[in-house]
Amino acid sequence: MKHYWKRFKQLPVYQNKWLKISLAVLLLCIFFFFITLSNVYTETYNIERFNEAKETIRSPLSIENKKETERERREAIQAVEDRYEISSEITQERAGYVNELFEAIDKLEEEEKASKARDEEDTPAATDKEKAQKLQQIISPKLSEALDREELIELINASSEKRSLAKELLTTSIYEVMNDGVTTETVENAVKSVNEKLQYSSLSDEMKEVLYILSDFAIVENSFYDAEKTVEAQKHASNNVEPVMIRAGEIIVTEGQTITNEIYEQLKLVGLLNDDRNVYPLIGLILLILLIGGTIVYEMHIHSKKRELDVRKIASIILISVLMVSLMKVASVFTDSVNQLFFLVPAATGAMLLKILLDERLALAMSILYSILASLIFNAEIPGSLNMEAGIYLLFSQLAGIIFLVSLKDRIAILKAGIGITLVHILTVLLFLFLSFEKYAIADILTFSGYGVVAAFLSSVLTIGLLPFFETGLGILSDTKLLTLSNPNHPLLRKILIEAPGTYHHSVMVANLSEIACEAAGANGLLARVAAYYHDLGKTEQPHYFIENQMGITNPHDMLQPKQSAEIIINHPYAGAHLLRKHKLPKEIVDIAEQHHGKSLLQFFYHKAKEQNKQVNESDYRYPGPLPQTKEAAIVCICDSIEAAVRSLKEPTNEKIEEIVTSIIHQKLMDGQLNDAPLTFKELEKIRKAICETLNGIFHSRIQYPTDQEVKEAN
Predict the structure, then answer these.
(1) What secondary structure does DSSP assign to 479-544, as a single string?
(2) Which are the contacts of 325, defined by CB distance < 8 A and separation ≥ 6?
(3) 482 CB contacts (<8 Å, ≥6 apart)?
(4) CB atoms closer than 10 angstroms to residue 49
(5) What is the mean pLDDT of residues 412-430?
């Protein structure tokens, strides 16, 4: 199996970082697609008309039922009554005839009284017929034709009070009826309406009969059909009809209900029949997944610029994404309008794991993407809808995990972050409850808040439980792992301290320099610090052969041949790497320990050997390598040489420190020791300045206090 794994590593596909990233993200996108497919692409049914429904079927989308809308609009138009234009001129004209008649009678009566007043008693009084005849001459011909002499005589012989009452009743009734409009079809009814009012008056029957004739004469058609107003009213009625909508989630048919034609048409309209499946939601889902996948690839690219992005880290992103989306999908199965179980999802787990294992920016970006997927997953499988409450809640949950996870010195920091997440969960739950129009009981508030507390607790527990799997199972070196390894009580560090105390002090100094230099160059300072603690572990095999441990003893190299001394010195990186592998320390630390001398030359022993024999082979006095492969390894390599050189200075002034730092970096470059490290000249200059500033701070000028002898002499 190992043989095939080695061969796989040698393939161009494996060596191509971007091909690996693209392949991993493609597989993740396929997973996202299939797990969210049911949320946009609903089940279809093989249903026939007039059969009983085997299950309750809801609409997967909101859509207008155009046929039903058109039917309601037709009914609204048909319900509109014809519009008519009422002619007030005709009303005035017909009422004018009645007024004219009664005014003419009053005038005749006045003339008769005036004639009597002129003492014309001898003049015989006009007979009723003569009066009627004279009246016919002065009134309108239409009135003359409508009334016979007998009706006129009845009006003439009536008292003025009766005529006044008759006139008032008739004209008022005529105005009331005709002002409402009288059509050809309603003339007869209008006359009857007036006659009914006259019938209950105190007038004599003979007078009523005359008035009946007058009403029949006066009331005519005065309301005419107005096509323009009718069409306008129909349009208004049609526009007021709201579109008939089938809402997403609305029950179309319940279990056991007969599939009528209307129900069948609704099922067909929303695309729930086998031959009517809608492919547009599927296209929309593919576009969403492509956008998410593109964002993940971009964020991986950004991360790879800051830190190495190997197969293990890619695998961790994929596994965390699969875990988080799977948890959401499981919770969505049991979520309904009553039980909002998305409050229970421990979403902050993924955000905290990504921040610990990779970095904060990637954790933030993935949190946003998980929230978008959550709004889709918790949409109750209604295509075209998003559950924004679920998306917002899970986004705040993950942001809380990222923000509150600080000062990660131990696992307790994760539990402390859980307290902050709990607070954010409760606030978010209350936010949704108070913004809702519904009135929630205290029990509901406590229940949903309790869900938030449980989710925060699960987030902390899952993060603590899963972290060792990623650190050990995938071999990912997280900051928490590095902080654990930096503990001075670690067995290997205690071994260095006890067996090679000078080397331990040297390692601590190198660690300080390396961390500061890495931060200046944009590398992982914590990794460099911890690796520097262990980089000289191999010296514990023969500690006295290294000058920093030779306190008060004779240098044993004085009794050895240069080649023997060189072999002892050259062996220590590889002996240290062997011990580190044996104790299963992370590969990154092992690599730095093995690479921190690269292929540099042991100049002292090489020149000493050359003094004895000019035919010395230089390769015997060079470390076999490999060269530093990472920024951190290269910086530890530089700082290791600089610390040893500066420590040997008797009077380390600022000028001497800067000179020796510059010289060592230049020497490493010229000797090709940094050829494989991804460092630029700009970064090397930043490293040089950072190291110089740190060393100048350590070896700053001190006041030279006088000795006791100098004090005595001064006195």
Answers:
(1) HHHHHHHT-TTSHHHHHHHHH-HHHHHHHHHHHHHHHHHHHHHTS-HHHHHHHHHHTTGGGGSSGG
(2) 31, 32, 35, 370, 373, 377
(3) 526, 527, 529, 530
(4) 11
(5) 91
How far is Cα of residue 85 from the mean position of the Cα atoms in its chain?
59
| Residue-wise burial string across 681-705, b where 16 or more C-beta atoms lie within 10 A, e elsewhere | eebbebbbebbbebbbeebeeeeee
Q: Is 648 strand, coil or helix?
A: coil
Q: What is the C-alpha separation between 432 and 392, in angstroms, rounded? A: 10
| Percent of the chain residues topping a pLDDT of 90 | 36
| Cα–Cα distances in angstroms (integers) from residue 595 to residues 29, 311, 517, 525, in the given order | 38, 21, 18, 17
pLDDT for residue 703: 44
Q: Which of 83, 87, 100 is nearest to 179 (CA)?
A: 87
DSSP β-ladder status, 251-253 and 245-246: unpaired
State both tokens at 469: 């799997």
Beta bridge partners of 58: 251
| 606 or 634, higher pLDDT | 634
Q: Which amino acid is at 510?
A: V
The whole-angstrom separation of Cα 528 and Cα 508 is 11
Residue-averaged pLDDT of the chain: 85
Angular region, 406: left φ>0, alpha ψ -120 to 50, beta rest: beta
Give the long-range contacts of residues 254-259, CB within 8 A, separation 24 or more.
254/53, 254/56, 255/53, 255/54, 255/55, 255/56, 256/52, 256/53, 257/52, 257/53, 258/50, 258/51, 258/52, 258/53, 259/47, 259/48, 259/49, 259/50, 259/51, 259/52, 259/53
Tokens of 370: 């998980």
Supply the DSSP string of 374-421, one letter for each residue.
HHHHTSTT-TT---HHHHHHHHHHHHHHHHH--S-SSTHHHHHHHHHH
CB-CB contact of 623 with 570 (8 Å):
yes
Q: Biggest alpha carbon distance in the chain? A: 187
Nearest residue to 399 via CA among 347, 359, 455: 347
Q: Are 318 and 293 in contact (CB under 8 A)?
A: no
Q: What is the mean pLDDT of residues 679-701?
A: 88
The predicted pLDDT at position 278 comes to 64
Residue 176's identity, in one-letter code, is E
Average of per-residue pLDDT across 354-373:
93
User: What are all long-range contacts of 377-380, with beta carbons under 8 Å and residues at least 24 apart?
Assistant: 377/35, 377/36, 377/39, 377/325, 377/328, 377/329, 377/332, 378/328, 378/331, 378/332, 378/335, 378/342, 379/39, 380/249, 380/335, 380/336, 380/337
Rounded distance between C-alpha atoms, residue 222 and residue 532, angstroms: 110
Residues 6+ apart with CB under 8 A from 601: 618, 621, 622, 671
The answer to whether 158 and 106 are in contact (CB under 8 A) is no
**Locus of tokens 């290269």:** 634
